[in-house]
């Protein structure tokens, strides 16, 4: 997702506000001291309860703290004060997207864009939720609109690449990641994502260079170890992949993806029950994680539990995993499982 700090903040405040509180709150937000910033926004709300801007800014502070319900409350209060404020409506959409309520988020982004069709971040945010819903071409179109409005929008190029990669347009994804890196070479995630696309294309050497550059940029980041694990798994070095996922989990135990991927590596080693434990852990963190349900369907198919696997497969499809990919993979595994063993003569 677009980081919470990218919620739109271009709100005009009433000039009668107590400027010291406003300046202090903005400075604290800039320093990422969000709890202290909220105290200043609270004071501004007390002084000017009918001012839309302070509710939006306070909502942004709550969103940056991960307190999404409070963020929603503040954006909704801003909209009650000014029902046609596109910024407040957009930021409400980002909060719902962070809550994984992407259908609702898209509806909110659409309303915001009706009020202000020149807001690049609105199209980018909408594109991310569409990607999460599996509507990849619509997502790509939305990112294209964001880029048309802001040609140097590196983050829009990055997320367009994510949608293209997920949609199977790997060559196009690499080009989008190239553009994102050219415009902003700092985020390690851009190199990891380009590396993943190149890895899938069979460009192993180029992929490894991307992973190495990402490690150079962010050696202590959990995501770094996660993507190196992805690389090792692709190279069928499952024990090394598990070690990387272990380190990623140690550094950030609240991300579901390393548990889900570690499950895959364990399953390839034949450790099905520990793999299922990892999938369950991933789903405890993120109950609407379609890839985890798909993963569990694969593991249960390998175990021969086809009825349970189908339940998980249906849930994965419901959550946006491509139906063709799910059915093709499970049918392939069932065929493989029923192949007669060939014994030497």
Pairing-aware structural class of the strands and helices? Answer: mainly alpha
Q: So, the CATH homologous superfamily of the largest domain?
A: Tetratricopeptide repeat domain
**How is the main sheet built?**
none
Subunit arrangement of the protein: single chain
* H/I helix tally: 19
Mean pLDDT: 89
What does this structure look like?
The model is unreliable at 1-6 and 8-17 (pLDDT under 50). The protein has helices spanning 19-30, 34-47, 52-64, 68-81, 86-98, 102-115, 120-133, 136-149, 154-166, 170-183, 188-200, 204-217, 222-234, 238-251, 256-268, 272-285, 290-303, 306-318, 323-338. Helix content is 75%, strand content 0%. The protein has 345 residues and is mainly alpha-helical. It is globular and about 75 Å long. The chain is built from 19 helices and no strands.
Furnish the topology, listing elements before pairings.
Elements: H1 19-30, H2 34-47, H3 52-64, H4 68-81, H5 86-98, H6 102-115, H7 120-133, H8 136-149, H9 154-166, H10 170-183, H11 188-200, H12 204-217, H13 222-234, H14 238-251, H15 256-268, H16 272-285, H17 290-303, H18 306-318, H19 323-338
Helix pairs in contact: 1-2, 2-3, 3-4, 3-5, 4-5, 5-6, 5-7, 6-7, 7-8, 7-9, 8-9, 9-10, 9-11, 10-11, 11-12, 11-13, 12-13, 13-14, 13-15, 14-15, 15-16, 15-17, 16-17, 17-18, 17-19
Descriptive tags:
single chain, 345 residues, mainly alpha, Serine Threonine Protein Phosphatase 5, Tetratricopeptide repeat, 4 domains, 19 helices, 75% helix, 0% strand, globular, disordered N terminus
């Amino acid at each position: 997702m677009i980081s919470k700090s990218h919620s739109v903040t271009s709100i005009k405040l009433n000039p009668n506000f107590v400027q010291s509180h406003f300046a202090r709150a903005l400075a604290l937000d800039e320093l990422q001291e969000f709890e202290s910033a909220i105290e200043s926004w609270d004071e501004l709300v007390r002084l000017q309860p009918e001012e839309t801007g302070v509710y939006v800014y306070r909502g942004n502070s709550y969103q940056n703290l991960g307190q999404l319900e409070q963020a929603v409350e503040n954006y909704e209060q801003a909209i009650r004060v000014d029902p046609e404020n596109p910024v407040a409506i957009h930021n409400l959409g980002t909060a719902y997207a962070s809550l994984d309520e992407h259908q609702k988020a898209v509806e909110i982004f659409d309303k915001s864009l009706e009020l202000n069709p020149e807001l690049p971040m609105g199209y980018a945010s909408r594109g991310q939720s569409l990607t999460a819903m599996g509507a990849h071409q619509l997502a790509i179109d939305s990112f294209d609109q964001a880029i048309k409005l802001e040609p140097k929008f590196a983050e829009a190029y990055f997320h367009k690449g994510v949608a293209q990669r997920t949609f199977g347009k790997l060559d196009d994804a690499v080009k989008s990641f190239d553009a994102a890196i050219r415009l902003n070479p700092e985020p390690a995630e851009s190199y990891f994502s380009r590396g993943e696309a190149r890895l899938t294309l069979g460009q192993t050497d180029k992929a490894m260079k991307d992973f190495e550059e990402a490690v150079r940029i962010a050696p202590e980041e959990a995501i770094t170890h996660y993507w190196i694990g992805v690389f090792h798994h692709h190279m069928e070095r499952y024990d090394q992949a598990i070690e990387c996922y272990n380190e990623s989990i140690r550094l950030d135990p609240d991300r579901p993806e390393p548990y889900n991927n570690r499950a895959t590596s364990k399953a390839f080693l034949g450790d099905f029950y520990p793999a299922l434990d990892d999938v369950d852990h991933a789903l405890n963190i993120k109950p609407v994680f379609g890839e985890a349900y798909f993963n569990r369907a694969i593991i249960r198919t390998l175990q021969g539990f086809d009825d349970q696997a189908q339940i998980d497969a249906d849930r994965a499809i419901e959550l946006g995993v491509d139906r063709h990919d799910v059915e093709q993979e499970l049918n392939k595994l069932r065929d493989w499982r029923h192949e007669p063993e060939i014994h030497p003569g």
